[in-house]
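Fresh eyes needed here. Kindly weigh in on this sequence plus structure tokens:
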Amino acid sequence: MFKFLRGLVIWQVMRSNFPIVKRLVFSFAIFAISLYFFPDWEDYFSKRNNLDMLLYTKLTKYLFLIASGVLFLNNIKKLSLLGKKEKERKEDNKADDVEGKVETHDPDIEAIRSKKKKKLKKKKLKKK
């Protein structure tokens, strides 16, 4: 059972994209705390008839809600973009493997290798 849970895709995504997942959790926590914290203060200021503080509290509440929502959505987009890029890379690698055109070295390495062969030939000639 434990192996099954470790093999789930969500754990692999979390391990490979930990900073983004950490920001997602942080923005969700801010959103949840603001939904819990601000209504209490709004009730308190409405009972005291302190309309200035009620206005500031409501503005701060909506600022926190909007900012955390935007932060959450931006991180979700980053996570989905990373997933799309990984899928494209895997598809490209599979296509290259099928065609047999996977280059494992730099194209200029052939020139460097041929120079080494020439040097070895020169050394052999000098020895004779």
Observations:
- The helical segments are 2-6, 9-16, 18-48, 51-99, 109-127.
- The chain has a mean pLDDT of 77.
